[in-house]
Specification:
With 232 residues, the chain is an all-alpha fold. The protein is 83% helix and 0% strand. The protein has 10 helices and no strands. The chain has helices spanning 2-30, 35-52, 55-68, 72-76, 86-113, 122-129, 132-167, 169-182, 190-206, 209-231. Helix 7 packs across helix 9 (190-206). The two termini are 34 Å apart.
Length: 232
């Protein structure tokens, strides 16, 4: 069991922590700067990320987006907040959440029929067990940091930059979403997370990065709000 938990942590680390660093290194090399310095920065980043969860990747993702400004990809993938509409974001997110509920009802019913055990996601368990005073610290981690980092990694880095260019739009969306759902390590939530991943691929492709982030943030915020209400 310990080996399994260690393997999970390593996999999540490689998939979430490393991609923002690789993007930053790419930008650094394009400017022909010291490789010794970027090596030192990388070591500091990795060590800090081990102890700060999503905080360091969140900061590096924002820094990467800032570096992209003026590049073709900045406008191509909607990294500019100027074109973001809160009303449209809400519309897409409410639609997504409605479908998520339908998917959840169907998947839970099917799993119950076949006697498949159902457990809450680890992050939900973790936040449920937190005392209220510490719960507030976890709120930005789940509601803000995670959406910004995960959409950058799974929707932009894996889907747009890697998979779509090598295996095509549909296959790239499916593969990146399967990986996204898999690393949550929860069979009950798998269909819902797969749907969110697929829909967010559509959002970043057609609407822009911040729409996929907003949809992810909306979903996580509803969950966090429900947990908070239960504690109060």
């Amino acid at each position: 069991m310990l080996d399994y938990e260690i393997a999970k942590e390593i996999l999540v680390f490689l998939l979430l922590i490393i991609p923002p660093l690789l993007v930053y290194i790419r930008f650094w090399r394009e400017r022909d700067r010291s490789m010794m310095l970027i090596s030192a920065i990388s070591i500091i980043y990795i060590i800090a990320a081990i102890f700060t969860q999503n905080l360091m990747p969140f900061i590096l993702v924002l820094f990467n987006i800032a570096i992209m400004k003026g590049r073709v990809e900045f406008e191509e993938y909607g990294f500019s907040l100027k074109g973001f509409s809160f009303i449209k974001g809400m519309k897409y997110s409410v639609f997504s959440y409605f479908i998520t509920i339908v998917v959840a009802i169907v998947s839970i019913s099917v799993m119950a029929y076949f006697g498949i055990g159902q457990e809450e996601q680890e992050v939900v368990k973790w936040m449920t067990d937190l005392p209220l005073e510490k719960f507030w610290i976890a709120v930005p981690v789940a509601a803000v940091f995670a959406p910004v980092v995960e959409e950058f990694v799974f929707r932009w880095f894996f889907f747009e930059r890697l998979f779509k260019k090598s295996i095509g739009l549909i296959a790239g969306a499916v593969l990146s979403s399967l990986i996204f759902a898999f690393i949550h390590f929860n069979i009950q939530a798998f269909p819902m997370i797969l749907w969110i991943g697929m829909y967010n691929c559509y959002l970043i492709e057609k609407k822009g990065y911040w729409y996929s982030v907003f949809n992810h943030l909306f979903f996580n915020s509803v969950t966090v709000a429900a947990l908070l209400m239960d504690k109060i």
